[in-house]
Specification:
This protein is mainly α. The protein has one domain. Helix content is 82%, strand content 0%. The protein has 4 helices and no strands. The longest helix is centred in the first third of the chain and has 33 residues. The protein is elongated, with a radius of gyration of 19 Å.
Length: 123
């Protein structure tokens, strides 16, 4: 039977590695998105950063859960792949948020009926 301290340390190392993969992938996605579509203001920069990180981590978690990729955390290569997965999931976050806010800005003075009609036409 292994020592309790050694398994506790291994768990802590794994937890840190997973957090590093998530943070690294999300941070890189944010940098790429900000370079490709520069924000127009400081407020937009903050919204872009937050939405990209949240989309990367949340979308990555959903993808891991859906495809059953939990075993990837057992190796360094798997953790790097998860970081790439989180990176890929974070890329569309900023674009989606920007589209939604541009739509809201365009329809700022429209009634809810006008907005519903426009959304129905698009769909």
């Amino acid at each position: 039977m292994p020592e309790p301290t050694s398994s506790g340390v291994a768990g802590a190392v794994a937890y840190k590695a997973i957090g590093g993969a998530a943070a690294g992938g999300a941070a890189l996605a944010s940098i790429v998105v900000m370079l490709m579509t520069p924000p127009r203001s400081k407020r937009e920069w903050a919204v872009g950063l937050i939405s990209t990180v949240v989309t990367g981590i949340g979308g990555g978690a959903i993808t891991v859960q859906y495809f059953g990729l939990h075993d990837w955390v057992q190796s360094v290569t798997g953790l790097m792949a998860l970081g790439g997965l989180i990176f890929g999931c974070g890329l569309p976050g900023w674009a989606i948020v920007r589209w939604v806010f541009n739509f809201i800005e365009k329809n700022r003075d429209a009634s809810i009926d006008d907005v519903a009609k426009e959304v129905k036409e698009v769909l």
